[in-house]
Design brief:
Elements: H1 12-24, H2 29-48, E1 53-57, H3 61-75, E2 80-84, H4 91-99, E3 104-106, E4 115-119, H5 131-143, E5 146-150, E6 172-176, H6 189-192, E7 194-198, E8 208-210, E9 230-234, H7 239-252, E10 256-260, E11 272-274, H8 278-281, E12 288-291, H9 299-310, E13 315-318, H10 327-331, E14 337-340, H11 343-350, H12 357-368, E15 371-374, E16 380-382, E17 388-390, H13 403-416, H14 421-439, H15 445-456
Parallel strand pairs: 1-2, 1-4, 2-3, 4-5, 5-6, 6-7, 8-17, 9-10, 9-12, 10-11, 12-13, 13-14, 14-15
Antiparallel strand pairs: 15-16, 16-17
Length: 457
């Protein structure tokens, strides 16, 4: 049972391919089931204490994992019961059921237990549970003090995080072999609780990974403000938004931050203020140019976006500016580019899509030849080469005005500091989430910008 930060994310098809690779190398399906069940049993034994455990087993291999776990818990002297949806159907599950020497209760009439383990269905489910099974699962889960899902909560779609029915919330989900997109994409992620990986000895190569704490070194002994990175933020109609982004860049570690546009009373003295003209925009020391926070969408704003696109600077485009560009314009740029859209801005720039969020972000990144930070309660970061980072859910208190401006500033600081675009975006998202975690409830964006200092430390 290991934490998920930095681990691979596999779709249902990729997970099946990983299992097939292991089987082709000589590992039997039964052996994989024994590993999975043993891992589940070990995790439940640590989590459940002396409490009775009720394991719900489905007809497939997920149910087989449950039978294996039940047998191991029983052998360890733990009080464990099994309730089943029906008879097992796969050969490995049938063999696992045969090794369970206890009784098997019907799912529909099973009595609750303090610890509930859902091993009904895992990866690859495509339809909701029937009414009887769904009602039983919901009742037993709600009556448990601890509810654990094996691989995925029964009733969620593996690849897009959709709820196929009325899925109860679990305290812990034990991902078998690797994390799946549904562990991180909403609304399924909210039903998973804390997610941990149970290794089962299959290859987990993937170009998608869970967001991890970035490796951010302190400045070198001979560093100066420009080697640490210079960020220029273009001010628009709403001056406060640009100032928030600039403050965020400063607190995230940029060595020199300037605000291009009219001066703002009350701005930090360390924030350099300049007119936004060709000379300022052409400054070769700029490591990242940020445009969009509070920009507006009028002709003046459009002209500023055109000026920014014409520079050769690495560029972060946020907010209103995302409504004033096209994917074709962006693809034509040679310099590094990071886009930070929320769902509305994403649809405005790339059009509506029926694809899951990970696939949509990847397609958009390839189309614009840019790193895309598709924001939301389930933030997905995708590069034009297909690599992706999926962020675990951050604080819901980030739903406050200006938090997106702070994120854009943090990402700009990382980009100006020399990080590759995907790494810069990932580092900014992690710092943003960590700052929110440190603040607790009811913070404002000004607090969030300042808290980046502690998160960076």
């Amino acid at each position: 049972m290991i934490p998920i930060a930095g681990t691979a994310v596999l779709t249902a098809a990729q997970m099946r391919a990983a299992e097939d690779t292991a089987i082709a190398a000589g590992v039997s399906v039964d052996a994989l089931m024994q590993r999975a069940g043993a891992g589940v049993a070990d995790a439940v034994r640590r989590l459940a204490g002396v409490n009775e455990v009720l394991i719900l087993c489905g007809p497939g291999n997920n149910g087989g994992d449950g039978y294996v776990a039940a047998a191991r818990l029983h052998a360890a002297g733990r009080a464990v019961r099994v309730a089943a949806l029906g008879e097992p159907r796969s050969p490995a599950a049938i063999a696992a059921r045969a090794r369970w020497t206890g009784t098997v209760e019907p799912l529909a009439t099973a009595a609750p237990a303090p610890v509930l383990v859902d091993a009904l269905f895992g990866t690859g489910l495509s339809r909701a549970l029937d009414d009887v099974a769904g009602a039983a699962l919901k009742h037993l889960t709600e009556q448990a003090n601890l509810a654990v899902a094996v691989d995925l909560p029964s009733g969620v779609a593996t690849d897009d995080g959709a709820l196929l029915g009325d899925v109860p919330a679990f305290h812990v989900t034990l991902a078998l072999g690797a994390v799946k997109p549904a562990h991180l994409l909403q609304p399924a992620a909210a039903r998973c609780g804390a997610v941990r990986v149970i290794p089962i000895g299959v290859p987990t190569d993937s170009d998608a990974h869970v967001l991890a704490r970035p490796a951010l070194a302190a400045p070198a002994v001979d560093a100066h403000k420009f080697t640490r990175g210079m960020v220029a933020v273009v001010r628009g109609r709403m001056a406060g938004a640009a100032q928030l982004a600039a403050r965020a860049a400063m607190h995230a570690g940029a060595g020199y931050v300037e605000l291009l546009g009219a001066t703002i009373p009350g701005a930090p003295h360390a924030l350099v203020r300049r007119r936004c003209d060709d000379q300022a925009l052409g400054d070769p020391r700029i490591g990242a140019l940020l445009i969009g926070p509070g920009l507006g969408r009028d002709d003046e704003a459009r002209a500023l976006v055109e000026q920014a696109l014409a520079t050769g600077h690495p560029l972060v485009i946020d907010g209103d500016a995302l409504h004033l560009v096209t994917p074709e314009q962006l693809h034509a740029r040679a310099a590094p580019l990071i886009l930070t859209p929320h769902a509305g801005e994403f649809a405005a720039l790339f059009g509506a899509s029926d694809a899951d969020k990970l696939a949509a972000a990847r397609a958009a990144a390839a189309r614009a030849d840019a790193t895309v930070v598709f924001k939301g309660p389930d933030t997905v970061i995708a590069g034009p080469d297909g690599r992706a980072r999926l962020s675990p859910a951050a604080s819901s208190w980030l739903s406050t005005a200006g938090s997106g401006d702070v994120l854009a500033g943090a990402i700009a600081a990382m980009l100006a500091g020399g990080h590759a675009p995907l790494d810069a975006a990932a580092a900014g998202v992690w710092l943003h989430g960590e700052a929110a975690r440190r603040l607790g409830p009811a913070f404002i964006a000004d607090d969030l910008a300042s808290a980046l200092t502690g998160a960076r430390a």
